[in-house]
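Write out the 3D structure for:
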Amino acid sequence: MAQVVLDHLTKVFQGPEGESVRAVDDACLVIEDKELLVLVGPSGCGKTTTLRLIAGLEDPTAGTIAINGQVVNGLPPKDRDIAMVFQNHALYPHMSVYENMAFGLKLRHYPKAEIDQRVMSAAQILDLTACLDRKPAALSGGQRQRVALGRAIVRRPKLFLLDEPLSNLDAPTRLQMRNEIARLHTRLGATMIYVTHDQDEAMTLGRRVAVMKHGLIQQVAAPMSLYEHPANLFVAGFIGSPPMNFFDGTLIAKGSALVFEEAHRNPAAAPRPITLQLYASLAPRLRSHIGKPVALGIRPEHVICASPERDPSPERALQAVVELVQPMGAETYLHLAGHTRSFIARVAANHPAIPNQAVSLTFDLRHAHFFDSASGTTLV
């Protein structure tokens, strides 16, 4: 397999009016041997361009790409020993499943016996043995994607590159294929770089996840580390479903206590913004930002709806109105109208809330995140 090292990798395209567009901006990243790393971010963030640079389909503007210690910037794609699986299955419609999977090996003049052994082995792994004589038109979307994966597997390359391979599948098939790719990675012990815009997919597949925005790598970490310790406001908002709730405001000192006061967006419509007293343990890390604009971030599961017979403590209490109740089976999402913005609480499936009901809430501030409003950098 392979270790991949991106060293200050940059790709600049020319825009329609001659302007420079930095698709990948000074990316530094190490993908370890046998690791499954996921590149995730919104459309246009540079993740597919990064994959194409590694594959040799694009030439870098600056920086280097090394595979197993060898700089491959000047190597053509065919000499990099890489297999790539695309969003479009790109199968030959006139060929059978067997012929599609064997085609690359035939071009490389492998012996027929070895081709047959490799194709049959991959078909067994991917549960395609019964489909080998069929044409792509006779296959389901999930089966076609398996064939595309099989075509890559039979090559036995150093590195697998997967560019949003599941985005065209329906939800149940996508979930099934996601599990199959995870099992495939474990079984093959392969180095894989997987590109997706779906953060749920990134969290469930990646040993590590690299979050990108505007060509820049924002943070690289294990999935739960991204969730619990985001490096900045963008990562905090992008990772998590439902997303983190954010409130703009200021930190104020009241005696020995530190208080978060929500910003007045429209005083006439919102005469009582959120005011929350912080735990004493947060004060030492936030005192330097007293009087400065900050953003408070709180995950939906840390928005606690008080029971009717027990109101929350007044210094951390707030009121909201239920806009929408969204049952999800094992849990329910409450969409709440606050004083200046809507936000979401994740509650038990049997929670009795109904639309237009006023509810008392608390934020579990032990799990709160604070961000510098100007830079987006995490403070706590």
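Residues 35 and 191 are 5 Å apart (CA to CA).
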